[in-house]
Design brief:
The protein is an alpha+beta fold. 37% of the residues lie in helices and 18% in strands. Helix 4 (115-124) packs antiparallel against helix 6 (219-247). The radius of gyration is 27 Å and the shape is extended.
Length: 293
């Protein structure tokens, strides 16, 4: 809970398990649905990129620089913005954008377990997160319904689609098969080397000045965390969808309801197990044999 060395529950170190599990989840999604999840840094302080093509960008593009921004013209400006606060012992925040290409259709629920709600919960469970947007997000509030609505049409290759994607791939809480697009805001790192006023555990006002190595901007490090949590959330919903759709007409559901050990509920299995146990060595015989060995 409180680790003075920096490994407490508020440290991004706790996300190592999420990222490990997320790597498996991404493989499952790729194997089952051909789904691909990519995140990148889209903003650091007031430096923003709008030149990233979500259809064609690759992980190599994201990993081509230390700030994890696939827009090379913007990446160096982000690095300079971070360096500007770093040399002053300060920190800064930014935004991670995540896209899900070729997501399964029909994931989510129309009410309490909406897909975007679970994605928001997953994202805001990460350290330092302060905001979440999906699709048009807050910018959508500036549009009229006639401008914001995504019109449906029939694609000759993929079937039902939308001409635009302001909904961010989720409508009514359920994925529609279009690309899922979201943004996650990360605050400036709390731990800085500048002196700050605080109060100690005895209630005495004092001054705090951090020491050691601390990231001036956590946003580039958050990219794999975001991808992992998105993957885990989608796999959760994929498993829920599979369970719901295969429950009816699935044949004998005894094991699902009673468990997979017939000796717990089936009289014939119980009797057979009892008979078999009598034919085997008694506890005394086993004890004697063990003693001889």
């Amino acid at each position: 809970v409180r680790a003075i060395a920096g490994g407490g529950r508020s440290s991004a170190r706790e996300t190592i398990g999420r990222v490990a599990a997320g790597a498996i989840a991404k493989k499952v999604l790729k194997e089952v649905a051909g789904t691909e999840i990519l995140a990148y840094v889209s903003a650091v302080r007031d430096v923003k990129t709008t030149a990233v093509n979500h259809e064609t960008m690759t992980m190599d593009d994201v990993e081509s620089n230390i700030v994890r921004c696939p827009d090379e013209s913007c990446a160096q400006k982000m690095i300079d913005a971070i360096d500007e606060v770093r040399v002053k012992g300060d920190s800064c925040g930014g935004v991670v954008t995540c896209v899900v290409r070729n997501p399964p259709r029909g994931l989510g629920a129309p009410a309490f377990d909406k897909l975007e709600a679970d994605l928001a919960k997953a994202m805001l469970s990460l350290p330092a997160t302060k905001g979440f947007e999906i699709g048009s997000g807050f910018d959508g509030t500036l549009q009229k319904g006639s401008e914001h609505n995504d019109e449906f049409f029939m694609d000759s290759e993929k079937g039902l689609r939308t001409r635009t994607n302001r909904s961010g791939g989720i409508q009514g809480g359920i994925s529609n098969g279009e690309m899922i697009e979201m943004k996650i805001a990360f605050k400036p790192t709390s731990t800085i080397t500048q002196a700050q006023n605080t109060v100690n555990r005895d209630g005495v006002e004092t001054e705090l000045k951090a020491r050691g190595r601390h990231d001036p901007c956590v946003v580039p490090r958050a990219v794999p965390m975001v991808e992992a949590m998105v993957a885990l959330t989608l796999v959760d919903h994929l498993m829920l969808q599979h369970a719901q759709c295969n429950l009816i007409d699935a044949g004998d559901l005894t094991e699902l309801v009673q468990g997979n050990l017939p000796t717990l509920y089936d009289p014939e299995a119980i009797a057979a197990a009892a008979a078999a146990s009598k034919a085997q060595m008694t506890t005394k015989d086993m004890s004697d044999a063990f003693s001889e060995d």
